[in-house]
Amino acid sequence: MKEMSLNKGIKILLVDDEPTILQFLEMGLENEGFQVLTAQDGMNAVTMVKEHQPHVVILDVMMPGMDGFEVCRMLKKIQNVATIMLTAREDVEDRVKGLTLGADDYMIKPFSFEELLARIHARIRNHYPHLLSKVHLGPFQIDDRRKEITYDGTLLELSPTEYSLLKYLVTNHGLVLSKPMILDNVWGYDFGGEENIVEVYIRSLRDKLNDRQHRIIRTLRGAGYRVDFV
Q1: Which residues are listed as membrane-spanning (predicted)?
Q2: Which residues are within 8 A (CB) of 89 and not within 5 positions of it... i.e. 6 or more apart?
Q3: How many whole angstroms separate alpha carbon 44 and alpha carbon 96?
């Protein structure tokens, strides 16, 4: 199943004060099958979210008047829309601020359209699994309603936590996921245990995937884990 066929009916709101960026992203996302809305300022963006209830908002930080941080804060009060923030600045403080206000992801300009598309798909799968209840990703098939994952046509015997962890890794394939990110998204923000629990479950998943060479779930020393399709 192609990603494009899954995108039909999914609404994305682009918010940026640069018309050339809006036009480029709008054209690319519409070609992928998304329904695309655009706004060039924060107040218009807030209004459009109330009226159209998009699934994903791609939000520029540096805008005149109401900046992206304030827009993000207001959007999260309206609905739990998936938000990807864009910025030309590499300041860690900016990224922390955006994520603290409720942003779900952060990208630094310039970026590739392919990476943005991958992050959009990841946000959709994590926020709206009912839209993509059965998803094919490389050799994996995730059936979220049945809480089942198959690999190369073989149904994996997974515990609920193993299912949640493998789903998180696979739907974010190609992205490096740190242990704190995994703990927050799989075990929850209030998890009080040790980070080493991630290693234990990764080891179990590798056993079930027959991934002795760590070619499917890769370890990036000091950074985290990344799923690659082989």
Answers
A1: none
A2: 61, 62, 108
A3: 25
Cβ-based neighbour number of residue 63 at 10 Å: 21
Residue 204's CB is within 10 A of a number of other CB atoms, namely: 16
Distance CA 222, CA 230 (A): 23
CB 10 within 8 A of CB 35: yes
The whole domain housing 212 covers 134-227
Give the pLDDT of residue 64: 84
Amino acid letter, 185: N
Give Rg (Cα) of the chain.
18
Both 139 and 209 in one domain: the answer is yes
* Distance, CA of 221 to CA of 176 (rounded, Å): 11
CATH of the domain at 220: 1.10.10.10
Q: What is the pLDDT of residues 116-153, one digit of tens each?
A: 988 998 888 788 866 766 778 889 988 877 889 999 99
Same domain, 86 and 27: yes
The tokens 């060039």 sit on which residue? 40
Q: Where are the alpha helices (DSSP H) in 66-195?
A: 68-78, 92-100, 113-127, 160-171, 179-182
What's the rounded mean pLDDT across residues 91-114? 81
Beta bridge partners of 35: 11
Q: Which of 164, 165, 139, 162 is nearest to 150 (CA)?
A: 139
pLDDT tens figures, 167-212: 999 988 989 999 998 998 899 877 777 888 999 999 999 999 999 9
Are 163 and 140 within 8 A, CB to CB? no
